[in-house]
Amino acid sequence: xxxxxxxxxxxxxxxxxxxxxxxxxxxxxxxxxxxxxxxxxxxxxxxxxxxxxxxxxxxxxxxxxxxxxxxxxxxxxxxxxxxxxxxxxxxxxxxxxxxxxxxxxxxxxxxxxxxxxxxxxxxxxxxxxxxxxxxxxxxxxxxxxxxxxxxxxxxxxxxxxxxxxxxxxxxxxxxxxxxxxxxxxxxxxxxxxxxxxxxxxxxxxxxxxxxxxxxxxxxxxxxxxxxxxxxxxxxxxxxxxxxxxxxxxxxxxxxxxxxxxxxxxxxxxxxxxxxxxxxxxxxxxxxxxxxxxxxxxxxxxxxxxxxxxxxxxxxxxxxxxxxxxxxxxxxxxxxxxxxxxxx
Length: 343
Prior knowledge:
Layout: E1 11-16, H1 25-29, E2 35-41, E3 44-49, E4 52-58, H2 64-74, E5 78-82, H3 94-114, E6 119-123, H4 130-142, E7 147-151, H5 165-174, E8 177-181, H6 196-215, H7 218-221, E9 227-229, H8 236-249, H9 251-254, E10 270-272, H10 278-288, E11 293-294, H11 310-313, H12 319-334
Parallel strand pairs: 1-5, 5-6, 6-7, 7-8, 8-9, 9-10, 10-11
Antiparallel strand pairs: 2-3, 3-4
Helix pairs in contact: 3-4, 4-5
């Protein structure tokens, strides 16, 4: 790694990775729905679900060496690794989801151990079984992961579900960050064309998650819980005024579990910077603060920022402010110090 300063150091909190070789969980568990990789040609593989094509990926989706080469080209010093959300497997039998999670978490931890100044890891949990999720959360801490990635909902539970609160409480107690990513998008059966689940459903999912945690009092009850939301918070920032107005005019519907207004929680959680537009980036920084927006690219997928940091670096801001978005907010969210990552 070239010589760097703390100001231009760059941490990408939103990157996804898979193991190069994934067991045939369908065969092992006796039912389908799980992802495998078909390495049909060099440096490329098909993600397959029950024999059906899901997505084509390249070796930068599994090879840390390929990732580091591209990071060098894009001047990204550290990637925060998390699994691809389709791997959450919350729909599966809990003991099977636990086994999948352990496999994925061990893979990420091994990469972070091998390249400790280049990668930081987030685990995945069998969130549909809170007791097992707590068990795996503690193990994630033991193997060196700095937090967890979860979906915007857990099957029929939104993130205000009382069943999930002990997991969030344990994350606060264990000093583990939480990254919330859309998955299993709502109303996808009505969005069969135009890639609409990714373009419309994902932003709505993030708003669902943020509103659920605010109205459900999760942030109020756990003030030290560090939560970041993908894709700049989805549609939530653009609709906050509507959410706030609804809270004010219909408290009988909105304030039933938490009497604190939604706007009071701006700055109490993090957003990544993946908004694709300088005006929107300016808006979310003004909304939650420059210390609560962290670079996130959705690497290595095409809907992400294809030149990591280009949007932040292109803003007419001071180097100090850019540094907060490029690494300061990320490190605070992770509970880490820059000295832990410098070579």
